[in-house]
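Sequence of HTH-type transcriptional repressor YtrA (Oxobacter pfennigii).
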Amino acid sequence: MNIIISNSSQEAIYEQIERQIKSLIIKGDLSAGDNLPSIRSLAQELQISVITTKRAYEELERDGFIETVPGKGSFISGQNKELIREKRLKMIEESLAQAVCEARDLNLSLNDLKKMLSILYEEERL
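Predicted 3D structure, token representation.
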């Protein structure tokens, strides 16, 4: 599992870990039943605190992406991929709704907002 931590990111380190593991699950790179590295070994590999890695795993478990079996480790949950996709779509909708609110507060037109979204979307692909 290749997790990359960016020190320049505005995102907290535990959120970066959580997001990247979720992405691996959605893409199918991690499948139901796959074993995640232990909290301690991942923390050691990433050279971060065990507390940070534990927080990432707790968030993943709370959202149903992983299951932890005491004494055995953490495993990718057998949760339905469609349900996971729906959760992510809901998160996108919430983020877009917030962006629309802020655009309205600035009297930004829908066309200008669409242009901004297109530019950001295309930049991410490069």
